[in-house]
Write a structure and sequence with these properties.
By secondary structure, this protein is an alpha/beta fold. It has 15 helices and 24 strands. The strands form six sheets. Strands 16-17-18-15-14-20-21 form a seven-stranded mixed sheet, sandwiched between helices. The chain has a six-stranded mixed sheet with strand order 11-10-9-12-13-23, sandwiched between helices.
Length: 487
């Protein structure tokens, strides 16, 4: 909890204590471009200490009943909810997202993650079979795995970190978590509440730093049998390689190139505002965001005209302004990467209908050096374009026309990713046909981002390995054994 002048200086949280680090990384406020925070640049030494603490805490924590662990998770949820505004302000400043999004999505969902798994851990059952002719009864038992390594991304910092911590500790594991070095503040704030919530020392350890140093040390540690990672497909490939010698259990939630398929019988009064959200919410920095919009030709012109007109109404600016719809992108480097895709599309002959390079962006004086970008809509882009094939992860979406159901299924599936899709149609039979044939782990129809946490979350193909949710997370974070009793 040290401070150096105006800079916030974070410390690792190991064995129930904040521990300073020998070196630090600058963390920037995306809305101003200024350094405002110093984050530990942890490596093998810090990870070793955290794993040691987690191993020491495991016997006591794993021996607690599900009810005891549930009560502690609920208490932690209450404490975060009590400080919701402080967490929202910190998340907005650290990540660049609007204060409205942080208040209504990020922090409430972080609270709910703890409450959800506090409840679900009380309701799991195991299997039992009988072989009466042999006088045998078989049953299964589930036990926690041990120390779980959790690596979370920068786009939904506390939201996705708690989505991993909550089920891991609910199941009786202890954890070493590594948030993104670009968005570490709310994880650090959460650590300050753990003791008050009743979490024993060493159950939750948080080590800050880069993926190359802290993340790799965690993935390679022989005493961490499970790794849960959310982030890029490229990083996941490295995690898979590094963890292979240890035969670690992996959960990998990766990127997406998500299609929205809009048929001519869609209700555009619902479809257009929802597709705007699915394209530009959180600056387009959500793995579930829509970046390819296929519109049936009969309504293509009308949709495009209305969609672009509404996109131009989205206000970009200071994230702390509650009237702003789009905040700052995470970093200068990421902003340049997203902009480069728009330039590539133009070079290929596509048309930018609004946003980057077309409309002027006026920012408040204090935000002139921030990493802002207007919602950008691209049309007349070919399916083989990088803008239609690669994850951009910014406020950019492409709109193209299609003719038939069969055609659009093939085009929607024609990418290496398979995370999410949305289908807009009033034809129930068509909706079911597409849901079966689309290569996506999630398919929303006539809506977007409505989630039941009981059900599996995850993607196909290059979008990941494994699923997360009540049952899936329980199975991932526990070992199952079959026990046979002869009588």
């Amino acid at each position: 909890m040290a401070h150096s002048k105006a800079l916030l200086v974070l410390e690792n949280f190991i064995a129930g204590k904040f521990v300073p680090c020998s070196s630090y990384i600058d963390s920037y406020n995306p809305s101003t471009g200024d350094v405002y925070c110093r984050v530990p640049d942890s490596g093998k030494e810090e990870v070793e200490a955290a794993v040691k603490a987690a191993k020491a805490a495991f016997p006591i924590w794993s021996s607690k009943s599900p009810l005891e662990r549930s009560q502690i998770l609920n208490k932690l949820a209450d404490l975060i909810e009590h400080d919701l505004e402080a967490f929202a302000q910190a998340e907005s400043k650290d990540q660049g997202k609007t204060i409205t999004f942080a208040r209504t999505v990020d922090i409430p969902r972080a609270v709910y993650n703890f409450r959800f798994f506090a409840s679900s851990i009380l309701h799991h059952t195991t299997e039992c079979t009988e072989m009466a002719s042999l006088g045998c009864v078989h049953y299964t038992s589930r036990t926690p795995v041990g120390v779980a390594g959790l690596i979370s991304p920068w786009n939904l910092p506390l939201y996705l970190l708690t989505w991993k911590i909550a089920p891991a500790i609910a199941c009786g594991n202890t954890v070493v978590a590594k948030p993104s070095e670009m968005t570490s503040v709310t994880a650090w704030m959460m650590c300050k509440l753990l003791e008050k919530a009743g979490v024993p020392h060493g159950v939750v350890n948080v080590v800050f730093g880069t993926g190359a140093k802290a993340g790799e040390a965690l993935v390679c540690h022989p005493d961490v049998p499970v790794i849960s990672f959310t982030g890029s497909t490229l990083t996941a490939q490295r995690i898979t390689e590094k963890s292979a010698p240890h035969c670690k259990r992996l959960s990998l939630e990766l990127g997406g190139k998500n299609p929205a398929i809009i048929f001519d019988d869609a209700d555009l009064s619902q479809c257009i505002p929802t597709t705007l959200r699915s394209s530009f919410a959180n600056q387009g920095e959500i793995c579930l965001c829509t970046s390819r919009i296929f519109v049936q030709r009969a309504i293509y012109s009308e949709f495009l005209k209305r969609f672009v007109a509404e996109a131009k109404k989205w206000k970009v600016g200071n994230p702390s302004d509650p009237t702003v719809n789009v905040g700052a992108l995470i970093s200068k480097e990421h902003l340049e990467k997203v902009r480069s895709y728009v330039k590539k599309a133009q070079a290929e002959g596509a048309k930018v209908l609004c946003g980057e390079g077309v409309d002027s962006l006026t920012l408040p004086t204090d935000n002139q050096k921030g990493y802002f970008m207007l919602p950008t809509v691209i049309a007349e882009v070919k399916d083989e374009s990088c803008c239609m094939q690669e994850e951009i992860f910014g406020p950019v979406t492409c709109v193209v026309a299609f003719d038939t159901e069969e055609e659009v299924i093939g085009r929607a599936n024609g990418v290496k990713y398979g995370l999410a899709a949305t289908v807009w149609s009033s034809d129930v039979g068509r909706v079911h046909r597409l849901a079966r044939r689309l290569q996506s782990g999630l398919v929303w129809t006539n809506c977007w981002l409505i989630r039941d946490l009981n059900l599996p979350f995850g993607g196909m193909k290059a979008s990941g390995i494994g699923r997360e949710g009540a049952k899936d997370s329980y199975e991932f974070f526990t070992e199952v054994k079959t026990i046979t009793i002869k009588h």
